[in-house]
Design goal:
Layout (H helix, E strand, L loop, with lengths): L5 E4 L28 E2 L6 E5 L2 E2 L8 E9 L8 E5 L27 E4 L6 H4 L1 E9 L6 E6 L6 E5 L4 E2 L6 E7 L6 E7 L6 E9 L8 E4 L1 E3 L22 E7 L7 E10 L4 E10 L10 E6 L20 H10 L6 E5 L10 H14 L4 E4 L2 H4 L19 H6 L12 E5 L2 E5 L11 H11 L8 E6 L9 H6 L12 H6 L3 E3 L7 E3 L26 E7 L4 E8 L5 E8 L2 H5 L14
Parallel strand pairs: 1-25, 1-27, 2-10, 4-11, 20-21, 21-22, 24-25, 26-30
Antiparallel strand pairs: 3-5, 5-8, 6-7, 6-9, 9-10, 12-13, 13-17, 14-15, 14-18, 16-17, 18-19, 20-28, 23-24, 28-29, 29-30
Helix pairs in contact: 2-3
Length: about 600
C-alpha cells in the first residue's frame, strides 16, 4: 500500500489549558499585576548589576551574563527581581485604571523576573545574588527589586542602567526559502532606521579562493503600538523600541552549493556595522533526486537559560528541543515550525528572546513558519476564531519578524517546493471553507504539484484536522473520525511501520510537542490512533529518492527515535485510483 498526501498539523494549543496541571498554560509575565504596582524606594535596599558595559563589540557578542546583587532589610518569600528594558521604566505615563485611582502605577511589564529567594540564604541574610542572561535588544536595561509578590508589587530598589556597547547592532538572522527554489532570504533585527544606515547582506559561494562577494540591499519594516489590536500588546506588553526588521534576497543560487553571508549596515559616514558570518546550503531544484531531510514541529515556545520565569512550567521542553536541533544541525536541511512560536501572548519582548533562542538554527537552515492561535487570534480582527490567544498581537510581530513566501503577507498561507517535496502551508486561523481565498490556494497547491518529480506532498496547518486523541477534542465532541475522511487505520493495523503500493487514504501526524505545555490524552484510544506519546519531541522526514520516504518521531530529551514508518511507492501507485481521487465515471462509460 502507498500513500496519499501526508498531513502534518500542530496540536491545538488551547488544549493545554485543560490539562492536568493548573499552572500550565499561563504566560509567566501575565501573573504580574504591574498596573497595581506602587513605588516606595527604600534607602537601605539596593540592586547592583555588573558589568555596566555589555558585550565585546569586536567579537560581535549579542548574548551576555550579568551578575545582580541585591539587599533588603525585610526579606520575604514574595520578593522578586525584575529585568526591564528600556532601563527608565518609571518615568513613562499611562492612564491609571479607575479602580486604582491616585497610585503611581507602572506601565511596562519586565522582560523577565526571578524570585529573590532563588539566591540561597536571602531570607536569612537579606542579601542575594542572581545571574541573568541578557540579549542585545536595542536598548539599555535596569534591574528592580519588588516586594509584595506578583499580585501587589511594590518597587523598593532599582539598579543603575547597563547596556550593550552597540545596542543597535544587527542580530539574530533568520533564513527562509523564497518564492522560488533558487532564492534564499535572510531577515534580521537592528536598531537602525533606514534614515541612519543602509541595511544589506554580503554573500557568495564558499570556495577555496577569495572570490568577490555580492552585496544585496535589504528592505526595512517595523510596527508601532497602534499596529496592535488590543491589550496586552498595546499596553503593558508593549516594547518602546520594537526595532527595525530587515529582509534581503539572495537570488540565482546554485542548487546544493554552500554559500556564506554576513549582514551589515552602512552608516551615513561610510563605515559598516557588521553582524556575524554564517553559511547555508542552497535548496535543491524541484524534483532533484538527492537526500533531503525535513524537521517539522509546532508549539515550541521559548524558555530562559538563566532559570527565570521557569517555575511556572509554561514551556519546559523548549530548550531541550532547541538544543537537540542545534546539536544535530548537520543532519537536516530545512525546518518547518508550524505555529505557536514564542507564546508571547502580547508581551512583545518575548519575540526578541525567541529569535535569539533559535538563531543558531535559523541562521544556518531555512526556518519556515506557520500561523498559530497564539500568533494571530483576537476578536473582530478578520480571523476565524474570536478568542484572545494572541494577547492583542493579531499576527503583526510574526508577520513582520519572519519572512515567508506568501503572495500577501497578511494571508499566512504559501507553498514551498523543496526538491522531492511540495509543502502546502495553510493558515488554520483564517477561514478555509469552500469559496474562500484560502480554499482556492489549498486546492491549487495540492493539484498543481507534479507527482512524477515531487512525490512527497505535505499539507501542514497549526490546528489538527479532526484526527486527534487529545482530551480537549474529546470533551468538545469532535473526537471521532471525520465522516468524509479516509484514514490509514486498516493498513496501519496490519503494517504499521511500512507502506507500499497504492493506499486508500491519508496519513495524519500531530507534531505539537515542540516544548510548550503538554495536553492530556483521552483514556479511550480511537481505532485510527496508531502511536501516541505524552512527551516533548519533533518529527523528521527523510526522502532518499522518488520512491522511498522515512518518517521519524524523536524525543527532545535525547534526540533518539521513538516511532517511525517508511513509505515505498512509485509513480504508478500515485496514478492508481483511491477512494476519493478518481471520477465515478470515465469517457469510456
Amino acid at each position: 500500500m502507498g500513500v496519499a498526501p501526508v498531513v502534518l498539523a500542530a496540536v491545538l494549543a488551547m488544549a493545554a489549558v485543560v490539562s492536568a496541571s493548573p499552572a500550565e498554560g499561563i504566560q509567566p509575565l501575565s501573573k504580574i499585576a504591574i498596573h497595581k504596582a506602587t513605588v516606595n524606594l527604600r534607602g537601605s535596599a539596593y540592586v547592583r548589576a555588573t558589568p555596566a558595559l555589555l558585550g565585546d563589540e569586536d567579537e560581535l557578542e549579542d548574548t551576555v551574563w550579568v551578575t545582580v546583587k541585591f539587599s533588603s532589610e525585610n526579606p520575604s518569600t514574595d520578593d522578586w527581581i525584575a529585568v526591564f528594558s528600556p532601563a527608565d521604566f518609571i518615568s513613562g505615563s499611562c492612564p491609571n485604571p479607575s479602580r486604582y485611582p491616585g497610585e503611581p502605577l507602572l506601565c511596562t511589564a519586565p522582560i523577565k523576573y526571578q524570585y529573590a529567594n532563588y539566591s540561597a540564604n536571602y531570607l536569612d541574610w537579606g542579601k542575594g545574588t542572581i545571574r541573568f542572561q541578557l540579549i542585545n535588544q536595542r536598548s539599555d536595561f535596569s534591574f528592580a527589586l519588588f516586594s509584595g509578590g506578583l499580585e501587589n508589587p511594590t518597587l523598593v530598589a532599582v539598579s543603575k542602567q547597563v547596556a550593550f556597547k552597540n545596542p543597535k547592532a544587527p542580530v539574530f538572522p533568520r533564513l527562509a526559502q523564497g518564492k522560488t527554489h533558487g532564492e534564499m532570504t535572510v531577515t534580521w533585527t537592528s536598531g537602525y532606521d533606514i534614515s541612519e544606515a543602509y541595511p544589506f547582506v554580503e554573500w557568495g559561494v564558499v570556495t577555496s579562493g577569495s572570490g568577490n562577494p555580492t552585496r544585496t540591499p535589504a528592505g526595512t519594516l517595523t510596527f508601532n503600538r497602534g499596529s496592535m489590536c488590543g491589550t496586552r500588546a498595546s499596553a503593558d506588553g508593549w516594547v518602546e523600541r520594537p526595532g527595525f526588521i530587515h529582509t534581503a534576497f539572495m537570488r540565482d543560487l546554485w542548487p546544493n552549493k554552500e554559500y556564506f553571508y554576513k549582514i551589515g549596515h552602512e552608516l551615513l559616514n561610510g563605515t559598516v556595522v557588521w553582524g556575524k558570518s554564517y553559511t547555508f546550503k542552497a535548496p535543491p531544484t524541484p524534483g532533484q533526486n538527492s537526500l533531503q531531510r525535513i524537521i517539522v514541529f509546532g508549539d515550541m515556545g521559548k524558555a530562559e537559560r538563566d532559570g527565570s520565569n521557569e517555575f511556572s512550567n509554561y514551556q519546559p521542553g523548549s530548550l531541550n528541543t532547541t538544543d537537540t536541533l542545534i546539536e544535530d544541525l548537520d543532519n537536516y536541511d530545512i525546518v518547518f515550525h508550524i505555529g505557536d512560536m514564542p507564546y508571547a501572548n502580547g508581551y512583545l519582548s518575548q519575540w526578541d528572546q525567541f529569535t535569539a533562542q533559535v538563531a543558531p538554527i535559523s541562521a544556518k537552515k531555512p526556518y519556515m513558519i506557520a500561523s498559530g492561535n497564539h500568533e494571530r487570534d483576537w476578536p473582530n480582527t478578520g480571523g476565524f476564531f474570536d478568542v484572545k490567544d494572541s494577547g492583542g498581537e493579531c499576527g503583526v510581530p510574526a508577520e513582520t519578524m519572519y519572512y515567508y513566501p506568501a503572495e500577501n503577507r497578511a494571508n499566512f498561507w504559501y507553498k514551498v517546493d523543496y526538491g522531492l517535496f511540495r509543502f502546502c502551508v495553510a493558515d488554520s486561523e483564517h477561514d478555509w471553507r469552500e469559496g474562500t481565498p484560502q480554499y482556492k490556494f489549498i486546492e491549487e497547491c495540492l493539484s498543481t504539484v507534479d507527482r512524477k518529480h515531487q512525490p512527497w506532498l505535505i499539507f501542514t496547518a497549526h490546528r489538527v484536522l479532526g484526527y486527534s486523541s487529545n482530551l480537549w477534542y474529546a470533551d468538545q465532541g469532535s473526537f471521532e473520525e471525520p465522516a468524509e475522511a479516509v484514514a490509514a487505520s486498516q493498513c496501519v493495523n496490519n503494517e504499521r511501520s511500512h507502506y507500499s503500493g497504492t493506499m486508500n487514504g491519508t496519513i495524519f501526524v500531530v507534531a505539537g510537542g515542540g516544548g510548550s505545555h503538554l495536553s492530556d490524552y483521552t483514556t479511550a484510544i480511537p481505532k485510527w490512533s496508531v502511536f501516541r506519546d505524552h512527551d516533548y519531541g519533533f518529527t523528521k522526514l527523510t526522502a532518499f529518492n522518488h520512491s522511498s520516504l522515512l518518517f521519524e518521531y524523536k524525543k527532545s530529551s535525547d534526540g533518539k527515535v521513538y516511532d517511525s514508518f517508511t513509505i515505498h511507492r512509485d509513480y504508478r501507485d500515485v496514478l492508481s485510483c483511491v477512494h476519493d481521487s478518481c471520477f465515478p465515471t470515465t469517457l469510456a462509460t
